[in-house]
TrEMBL record:
<protein>
    <submittedName>
        <fullName>MarR family transcriptional regulator</fullName>
    </submittedName>
</protein>
<dbReference type="InterPro" id="IPR039422">
    <property type="entry name" value="MarR/SlyA-like"/>
</dbReference>
<dbReference type="Pfam" id="PF12802">
    <property type="entry name" value="MarR_2"/>
</dbReference>
<feature type="domain" description="HTH marR-type">
    <location>
        <begin position="11"/>
        <end position="147"/>
    </location>
</feature>
<dbReference type="InterPro" id="IPR036390">
    <property type="entry name" value="WH_DNA-bd_sf"/>
</dbReference>
<dbReference type="InterPro" id="IPR036388">
    <property type="entry name" value="WH-like_DNA-bd_sf"/>
</dbReference>
<dbReference type="InterPro" id="IPR000835">
    <property type="entry name" value="HTH_MarR-typ"/>
</dbReference>
<dbReference type="GO" id="GO:0006355">
    <property type="term" value="P:regulation of DNA-templated transcription"/>
</dbReference>
Length: 157
């Protein structure tokens, strides 16, 4: 019985620390960073996905919601907010006369380029508490955990 209790306590400790770390990273590091640029994390994801695609920095709404694994309705709301801010525009899709593309505006490209630099520095600062080998070990362990949960484990963020 004592062995079982210790095992349960270890599980609870690991899960608690995992949740606490994820919440703290979002609350204390990611959300404030994105807020400095006037956006929320999900909006950063859309802009970064468009930027990663390369010139002309445009994708269909379907490609965006597939890439970010979200609903079409949720993506539409995000695109609406980004368009209102002047960071993306909807334009006709030359490959499909009925469809549209979501494209970065020049202001959106400048914004995401600046935000990505700050985000990479923020990630470095978050992980500075761990050595390079500890970071590699953590990445392997989290990948294994995600695989056990049926996730790909290859996410960026």
């Amino acid at each position: 019985m004592a062995t079982h209790v210790r095992s349960v306590c270890k599980q609870t400790l690991v899960m608690g620390r995992l949740q606490e770390a994820a919440l703290a990273i979002g609350r204390d590091r990611l959300n404030p960073l994105f807020a400095r640029y006037g956006m929320q994390p999900g909006e950063f994801d859309v802009l970064a996905t468009l930027r990663r695609g390369g010139a002309p920095f445009a994708l269909t709404p379907t490609a965006l919601y597939d890439a970010l694994m979200m609903s079409s309705g949720g993506m539409t709301a995000r695109i609406d907010r980004l368009q209102k801010a002047g960071w993306v525009e909807r334009c006709p899709n030359p490959a499909d006369g009925r469809g549209t593309l979501v494209a970065l505006t020049e202001a959106g490209r400048v914004l995401i380029d600046e935000a990505v630099v700050a985000h990479v520095e923020n990630q470095r600062a978050i992980l500075d508490a761990l050595s390079a080998s500890e970071q590699a070990q953590l990445a392997r362990l989290l990948g294994k955990l995600l695989a056990g949960l049926g996730e790909s484990g290859g996410g960026g963020g």
